[in-house]
Amino acid sequence: MATTDIHSLPTTSDRGGLGRMIARFKIARSRRAEYHRVVRELDAYSDRELADIGFHRTNIRDIAWQAAYGR
What top-level branch of life does the organism fall under (predicted)? Predict the structure, then answer.
C-alpha cells in the first residue's frame, strides 16, 4: 500500500526547483521547434538551391541540429 508523507509534498521553498524545471522544458521545446523549422525550410529547397548555398540534402538534419543546439 502506498502512502504519502505530508513532509515530502512540495512547499513554497521547492518552487524554485519547479521553476527551473519549467524553464528547462521551455528551452528544450524552443530548441526542438527551431530544429524542425530549419529542417522544413531546408527540405523545401531544391537540390540545386541547396548546392548553391553549399549544403547537400543528406546534411539537412545535421545542419538543423547545429542551428538549434549549437553542437
Answer: Bacteria
* Beta-carbon contacts of residue 53 (< 8 Å; ≥ 6 apart): 45
DSSP H or E stretch at residue 53: none
And the C-alpha cell for 28? Answer: 528544450
To 5 degrees, how large is the angle CA 38–CA 42–CA 45? Answer: 155
**Alpha-carbon distance 10 to 18, whole Å?**
9
Closest among 28, 55, 29 to 43, alpha carbons compared: 55
Longest CA pairwise span in the chain (Å): 65
Q: d(Cα 36, Cα 30) in Å, to the nearest integer?
A: 10
